[in-house]
């Protein structure tokens, strides 16, 4: 299933992967990002932030604000949502519950996932880092999921949120999750542990250049690596 999920999103070359990680880390500051800020953070000659945001394979993952600044990217957003990550007393938000499972590894942080069960309204808290995920209560939460349609590859952040993220939530019990998915064809339940395993495989496949140190492609001239 991890291959199907990865293939639904545009393939990123090593340079795009590094730019994506920089975007995540800028947004983790809690503020929207103007294209020149990405250019400055990349410290690469010959390649601008605007190029990555509008002309590269990252463009389909960019969430734009009304002032033409970036308010979200690849699941991380400055816009309030049901799902949040608490990192060093900063509250960040994600498009869906699963985003909150894979983004901490890309940021290199330990985070607390906070969400609310769509069926019961009960709060759900999980602790996650690159090594694992653990629940913070006696409840056994589950994750609803759906497999993206490979025939209609993701073409925009709005499409991702509508066709995928809106179906991916945390539930405080399997019973609550089963009730919710019963009226939503194509959805199914995963354990939190299985959701985290899928998140790890997604990161390993999608951001290999950053996580495993593969070399940058020849186009562009990076002054320094983003690791």
Describe the SSE topology.
Elements: H1 2-7, H2 14-27, H3 35-42, E1 44-45, H4 49-54, E2 62-64, E3 70-73, E4 76-77, E5 83-87, E6 90-94, H5 99-107, E7 111-116, E8 123-129, E9 132-135, E10 142-146, H6 157-163, E11 170-171, H7 174-181, E12 187-191, H8 192-206, H9 208-211, E13 221-222
Antiparallel strand pairs: 1-13, 2-3, 3-4, 4-6, 5-6, 5-7, 7-8, 8-9, 10-11, 10-12
Structural account:
The protein has nine helices and 13 strands. The protein starts with a helix and ends in a 5-residue tail after the last strand. 34% of the residues lie in helices and 23% in strands. Helix 5 packs across helix 8 (192-206). It is globular, with a radius of gyration of 17 Å. Mean pLDDT is 87; it is low at 215-227. With 227 residues, the chain is an alpha+beta fold. The protein has helices spanning 2-7, 14-27, 35-42, 49-54, 99-107, 157-163, 174-181, 192-206, 208-211; strands at 44-45, 62-64, 70-73, 76-77, 83-87, 90-94, 111-116, 123-129, 132-135, 142-146, 170-171, 187-191, 221-222. The protein has a single domain, classed as 2-Layer Sandwich (Beta-Lactamase), CATH 3.30.450.410. Strands 2-3-4-6-5-7-8-9 form an eight-stranded antiparallel β-sheet, covered by helices on one side. A three-stranded antiparallel β-sheet has the order 11-10-12.
